[in-house]
Design goal:
single chain; rod-shaped; 30% strand; minor pseudopilin epsh fold
């Protein structure tokens, strides 16, 4: 064990134990950067999940309404407007709002979701909210459904979901990202 001129011995390793301020700042910066990436990606994943859930809910409600139409022998329909939709039944010569408890109540999508609609190869303009919602998709008591394509999207995520009637069932699936 060597002794210095002052009579004590200290190694370089003993003096260098610990981290410099610069090293600590770099580590804190990296931790903050990784945390912000995780938070932002989970927020986007949450929006994507909400979009998927809403598309599945709409497809399920359309399926139930179609089955209800066949079982009750009366035509049902769903009408869309910006940010929501409502169910109707046909009575006399007019469509009436379907107020059948909680299941077929009018639904709001939320201000962050966009809705587009094509019925029988005609795009429906849903840009203006009106006080009176018109039926767009008709579910006949015979089991037939008017051809349609509903697209749900969110301005902050690239994903879109499409709901349509195919092979005697309503399907909700993620749309192709290709234009």
């Amino acid at each position: 064990m060597p002794i210095s001129a002052t009579g004590t011995w200290t190694s370089r390793r003993a003096r260098g134990a610990g981290f410099t301020l610069l090293e600590l700042l770099v580590v804190l910066f990296l931790v903050g950067l990784l945390t912000s990436i995780v938070v932002l990606s989970s927020a986007t994943a949450g929006l994507e999940r909400r979009l998927e859930d809403e598309a599945a809910r709409l497809a399920g409600l359309l399926e139930l309404a179609s089955e209800n139409s066949v079982l009750t022998g009366r035509e049902l329909a769903v009408g869309f407007q910006p940010g929501g939709y409502a169910f109707f039944y046909f009575e006399g010569n007019d469509w009436q709002p379907l107020q059948s408890g909680e299941l077929f109540r009018p639904r709001q999508l939320g201000s962050d979701m966009q809705l587009s609609l094509i019925v029988e190869e005609t795009e429906i303009d849903l840009s203006e909210r009106t006080s009176h919602v018109e039926p767009h998709i008709i579910m006949y008591s015979s089991g037939d459904v008017s051809p349609f394509l509903v697209t749900l999207s969110h301005g902050q995520t690239p994903g879109r979901y499409e709901i349509h009637y195919e092979d005697n069932r309503f399907a909700a699936q993620k749309a192709d990202e290709a234009p």
